[in-house]
Amino acid sequence: MSNSEFAEPYTIIEPFGGPFKGDVTVPGDKSISHRAVLFAAMAEGTSHLSGVLDSEDVRASIRAVEALGAEVDLKAQPDGSLSGTVTGWGAEGPSQPAAPIDCGNSGTTARLLMGIVAPWDIEVTITGDESLKKRPMRRIVAPLAKMGVDFKPETPETLPITVCGNRALRAIDYASPMASAQLKTAVLLAGVFADGTTTVNEPAPSRNHTELMLPEFNVPTTAGTRVATVTGPAEMLASDVVVPGDPSSAAFVAAAALLKPGSSVTIQNVSLNPARIGFVRTLERMGADIRESYGGHEGKEPRGTITVNYTPVLRGCEIPSQHIASVIDEIPVLALVAAHARGITVFHEVGELRVKESDRLKAIIDGLALLGVDAWEEGDDLFVEGNPQLQVPQGLVFESYGDHRLAMTWALVGACGRVPVSVTRFTCVAVSYPDFLADLKGLVK
Ligand SMILES: O=C(O)C1=C[C@@H](OP(=O)(O)O)[C@@H](O)[C@H](O)C1
Ligand SMILES: C=C(OP(=O)(O)O)C(=O)O
After folding, report:
1. Candidates 29, 329, 403, 439; catalytic one
2. What tens digit of pLDDT does each residue of 382-402 get?
3. Cβ neighbours around 225 below 10 Å, total
4. Do domains 10-27+244-441 and 30-225 have the same CATH topology?
5. How far apart are CA 335 and CA 435, in angstroms?
6. What atom of ligand 1 comes closest to residue 181's alpha carbon?
7. How confident is the model at residue 2, as a pLDDT?
8. Between vectors from CA 21 to CA 16 and to CA 22, what angle results, nearest 5°?
9. Protein residue whose Cα sits closest to atom 8 of ligand 1
10. Which CATH superfamily is domain 30-225 in?
11. Does 4 have pLDDT greater than 90?
């Protein structure tokens, strides 16, 4: 069977051979890196950052804060991370940028930026690439409008959007319709400069890096499981941030170890924030030999190691909707693991996957179909019927849709299997994990 009629440029991923063994360090956490750069830019004084992820998405945040007047002096380190200083605009506020700010492929940059520029007397046009311009922005516009922010056009759904800032924002108590850390963060960041306490309640817990990091920048903040507050107006002061490794990148290494017989891998210095390691909990429920080991904190973020051993028999499991936010970016690769497990895996309430960098729900179902694996949607639930005897056919071409998480997921089929596969637009992995293939190759024994 072949589906090689795809016209887009593709990369051939040959089988890597032997099992994956040994230690690996994954690059800095993307969510924490964005926040470190953005919060340092907002603060008074000079912050020292290290372990920052050097990827396309984080570079979008760096370019954005430079356009708004922050001074960024982050340099590439031998380990591939960025380290150095960011001097913020502090009490003076950001300057009026000369041109629209292009956030590239990064939803986090675009959505957090809307909250960051909202409390200042400037008009900032935010735009992005073709993928980002399709993603929903009304979820950010709605609460910011309640706080007193105007937009051009008046009630925009998608980028480009011009945010017309307002120095007299109202603090709000917001019942968020979804578990989204981007939404929560945009509102809290605007709330830093509003008069009073701004509260965001969520229907399920989302990642809490913002609540953990804001107090380090001198912002009075409270953090509960489904509620966070900031009290403004606050004076943001510079801080130092050390960024631990990204669990979302670690999930691909863990999946590789589970797909390749004989593998045994330890991922060093990775964030063990419970809101981010839902994939460890999910793989445990599938019966995988995987465990984390706590190794201390960076600021308020726990970090440590994750060890994964190849496990011959995995079984399907259910991921309830309350846990989806803790695995949201890992669902493509978890679905690939589920495709090798015995029985059905159900991811509940994953409609949000339709509006990520691509329609990940459709892409997962189509990609698994190429492998001969039955996967389908019922309402907003994703079902994957696994096959432990899965044989990968020759000549497969997987469509990444320029989406980094899909590109890495399908690359694992070739890297861990016995026949090469092709992945279209594979270079998009630079969005979150530029050295993905090299790190995996380094583990081949
Ligand atoms: O706040 C963040 O850093 C992120 C939150 C999540 O998005 P949502 O807030 O849209 O769920 C996640 O998918 C994204 O990769 C990063
Ligand atoms: C959804 C993602 O990122 P963002 O929303 O920042 O584009 C991701 O990294 O998988």
Report:
1. 329
2. 999 999 999 999 999 999 999
3. 10
4. yes
5. 23
6. 9
7. 41
8. 130
9. 180
10. Enolpyruvate transferase domain (3.65.10.10)
11. no
